[in-house]
């Protein structure tokens, strides 16, 4: 998926594009951090491909709002509207897979609903839903392998699911401009799918609160976790160090 010339959005619809675009951009960068560090060569390729899919989505969505490079590399931390979930550090491989499991199942449902509508996100969503189906399957297969593997892999996967669970509530808070997206239905399907996958992996759905991460103001309002600032500085360093540079 490549960036294309699009009509610039305004108001609430632009804010919705920014939220979706920032989710994809930040998670793409996090997955890119695995380059050279993935546990096996095949996974190096898989994570890179997912990261590139997300980057392609981000470019289109950000270009709906303004200049994609300026939005990615020149905004300050408080101007980003991504979910706190996607900015969480990679941690061990189980943490990365738990983050992917939660987000890819959510993103696949969101794009599926948007693709069925007639709003400005429908063309993008119709293409992206095919990509997210692969992302979801990748996370599902690794969850099954880790949960139904050794006691060590099961323990790490359980710990990762528990640690990231508190960030999942924010995904289902309404965002103005998303064109009648039924988040209650998305959440219901998301929970049902997670319950099924975790059950087959011999794991339980975490039972802790899912609201703590957003109750005091969350990523959608520009409030981010401590690790985000360090990640953003790394992501923006080259562009800010050489303003106006071209290859």
Description:
The protein has 9 helices and no strands. By secondary structure, it is mostly helical. α5 crosses α6. The chain is globular and about 50 Å long. The protein starts with 10 loop residues before the first helix and ends in a 6-residue tail after the last helix. The mean pLDDT is 91.
**For the terminal residues, how far apart are their CA atoms?**
22 Å
Strand content: under 5%
Supply the number of helical segments.
Answer: 9
Mean pLDDT metric: 91
* Count of beta strands: 0
**Main sheet?**
none
**Could you state the order of secondary-structure elements as H and E?**
HHHHHHHHH
Give the uncertain stretches in residue-range form: none
Helix content: 55-70%
What is the molecular shape?
Answer: globular
Q: Work out the radius of gyration.
A: 17 Å
Structural class: mainly alpha
In short:
The protein is built from nine helices and no strands. With 247 residues, the protein is mainly alpha-helical.
List the helices and strands and how they pair.
Elements: H1 11-32, H2 41-63, H3 68-73, H4 93-115, H5 122-147, H6 151-165, H7 183-200, H8 212-215, H9 226-241
Helix pairs in contact: 1-2, 2-5, 4-5, 4-6, 4-7, 5-6
Q: Which labels suit this protein?
A:
247 residues; mainly alpha
């Amino acid at each position: 998926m490549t960036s294309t010339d699009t009509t610039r959005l305004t108001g609430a619809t632009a804010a919705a594009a920014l939220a979706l675009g920032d989710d994809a951009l930040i998670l793409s960068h996090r997955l890119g951090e695995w380059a050279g560090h993935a546990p096996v060569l095949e996974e190096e390729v898989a994570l890179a491909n997912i990261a590139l899919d997300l980057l392609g989505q981000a470019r289109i969505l950000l270009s709906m709002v303004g200049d994609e490079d300026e939005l990615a590399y020149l905004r300050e931390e408080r101007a980003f509207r991504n979910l706190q979930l996607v900015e969480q550090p990679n941690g061990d491989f189980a943490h990365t897979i738990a983050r992917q499991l939660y987000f890819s199942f959510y993103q696949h449902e969101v794009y599926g609903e948007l693709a069925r509508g007639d709003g400005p996100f429908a063309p993008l969503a119709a293409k992206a839903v095919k990509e997210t189906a692969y992302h979801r399957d990748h996370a599902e297969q690794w969850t099954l392998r880790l949960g139904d593997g050794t006691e060590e892999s099961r323990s790490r996967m359980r710990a990762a699911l528990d640690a990231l669970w508190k960030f999942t509530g924010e995904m289902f808070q309404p965002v103005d401009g998303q064109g009648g997206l039924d988040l209650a239905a998305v959440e219901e399907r998301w929970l049902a799918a997670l319950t099924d996958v975790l059950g087959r992996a011999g794991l339980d759905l975490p039972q802790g609160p899912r609201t703590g991460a957003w109750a005091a103001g969350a990523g959608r309002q520009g409030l981010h976790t401590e690790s985000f600032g360090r990640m953003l500085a790394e992501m923006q360093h080259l562009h800010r160090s050489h303003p106006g540079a071209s290859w």
